[in-house]
Structure formats: structure tokens, C-alpha cells
Amino acid sequence: MISLFEQQGRRPNDWFDEHADVWVEHGLVTSDQIEAIREYEHLGGDTEPRISLGAELAVYLGSVIALMSGGIMVGQSWDTLATGARVALGLALATLGFVAGARLAGLDDAPTRRLASFLWLIGTGGLALTAASFVDRAEFDPGWNLVIIGTPVLVAGAALWRNRERPLQVVTSGVGAGLVLGGIGALLSIPPWLGGTIVWSMAIGIGALALTDRLRPELYVLGVAAVAAMIGALMLIDVSEVVGTSAATVTAAGIVAIGLDRHLVPILVIGVLAFLQALQGLLLATVSGAAASMVVAVAGLIAVVVAIARTTRAKTPPTS
């Protein structure tokens, strides 16, 4: 193959660069996987990463420490700050996060993309702080508070995500959507069982889109959908405890099945933990406490055995 490229006067990485974006766009591989292929096949020339792993870690730790320190100092005098000062602080965080993130994203290599996503998360937090500063001094209905705070979080998260390999923005979009839906439910006085049914249905739909490669990254979209589905199912406790815990148990079992089928360990962990909790709640509502504990313990052991057997079998190379 190399000789063919040389005969055409092209380098192997020219062909790779032309096709890499298309592969990522169609969800065949992630951007991080593209970078790993470049490094393994030496297709990146002598170009070194713009930010080393140590420098990247230092930025994360430094940012977290700075935010924690600033939060402690501001928190001590938060009640005495004027609304304008609170809004200015939120807008400063938002501006710093979004502008710095955009500049890093433009450098287009894996470490800078991760840092950009992290800074965008900080910027989105600044928007939430700005909105919260407005509603803190206003006498809005609690439902409006959730909508006002959640809307900029949802819009910013979705706009930055745009169905690309940006896990933090998937989570941000999910949090914003949860706040908005909760606020709308409170404003319209939607019964919990109906709200739970709506949330559960939306979560199942989002999960289906992830499983059919229409939403990505799959792992994180499925994670958000799994948590939302469990919340929606448990809201059916408004009908009765047995109905709610039964729905949660069935939902968690489905999450476990998806985790096993897709070999996604985080989804499997979410499903198993949710299943054991939901099953315990169901059993406590129907049988004695001692029997419930015994069944949950046995179910937990079975889940571990099945998960290990399934994972081991999946990784066993085929025999010739």
C-alpha cells in the first residue's frame, strides 16, 4: 500500500486525513480513536501533542483548586453581594470558559479537545450561576426557577454537543433537560405518575437512538438515558409502591441486558446497582424484610456470575 501511495505522489497520511473526518462524522470511530491510530501507524509525522499529559492534568487540578478556593471565599460573603456582582461573577466564568474552550478546540488534537470540553463545562456553570443570581432575588414560582436556570444549561450543552464526541456536554444537556422538565411539571401541576411516564418514555427513546448510532457518544448517551429511565420508573410510586418498584426493576433489568450486550461496563454497573435497589424495594413492599434481603443477596450473586461469564465468553478468541 505504501508503494502505491508513493507512485501516486501522495503520503499515506494524506489519504487517512481525507477519510478520518468522514469516519468520525458517521460514528464509525471516535476522534480519540483516530488520534490513537495516527500515533500507532506514525501518520502524524513528527508532530508532538500541543499539551503533554502532565500539563493537561495540571490544568485540571489547577482549575478545580482555583474554583474550590474561589467558591469558599465567595460563599462566605455571597449573601452580602449585590445581584449585579453575582451576575458579573457568573458572566466572567461563562466568558472565560467558552472563549478559552473555543480557542483550545481550534487546535484540534485529543488533549486540547478534552480541555476544551472541560472549560465549556465551567462556562456552562457560569451561565447557571448567572441565571440563579437573577432568580435568587426574585419571587418566582419554584417551577420557574428550575426553567430559568435549566434553559441556558440545556441550550449551551446541546449547542456545544451537536451529536459529537463530547461526553461532558452530553451530561450537561441531560442536567439542563432534567431541570427544565422538572420546572414545567411543577408549573403545570403534572401528577408525578404522568411525569414519570413522560420521562421514562423520553429516556427509552433517547437510548434507542444511541443504540442505533443516531446519537453519540453511545456510552454517555446511554448512561444519561439509563439514569433518566430509572428516575421516571420510580416516579410511578405515586400510583403505588409495588407499581413503581416493579417498573424500576424491569427497567434496571433492561439496562443490565444492554450493558452485557454492548460490553459497556459502566452501563452494566448502573444497571446492576439499580436492579438490586429496585428489587429490594419491590420485595420489601410484598414480602418480609428477611426474605427480601435473602433474595436480593442471591440476585446480586447471580448478576455477578452472569456478568463475568458473559464478559469472559465475549473475550475468548475463536478457535480455528
Describe it for me?
By secondary structure, the chain is mainly alpha-helical. It has a domain at 58-189. 80% of the residues lie in helices and 0% in strands. It has helices at residues 2-7, 12-25, 31-41, 53-76, 83-105, 110-137, 142-161, 167-187, 192-211, 218-234, 241-262, 265-286, 289-315. The longest helix has 28 residues, at 110-137. The radius of gyration is 24 Å and the shape is globular. Residues 1-11 have low confidence and may be disordered.
What is the secondary structure topology, with strand pairs?
Layout: H1 2-7, H2 12-25, H3 31-41, H4 53-76, H5 83-105, H6 110-137, H7 142-161, H8 167-187, H9 192-211, H10 218-234, H11 241-262, H12 265-286, H13 289-315
Helix pairs in contact: 4-6, 5-6, 6-7, 6-8, 7-8, 8-10, 9-10, 10-11, 10-12, 11-12, 12-13
For this entry, give a set of tags:
320 residues, mainly alpha, disordered N terminus
Coarse shape: globular
Give me the number of helical elements. Answer: 13
What is the ordering of alpha helices and beta strands? HHHHHHHHHHHHH
Question: Which structural class should the secondary elements be placed in?
Answer: mainly alpha
User: What is the straight-line distance between the termini?
Assistant: 28 Å
Report the strand count: 0
Which consecutive residue ranges, at least 5 long each, have pLDDT under 50?
1-11
Residues in helix, %: over 70%
Determine the mean pLDDT.
82
Q: Profile the largest sheet.
A: none
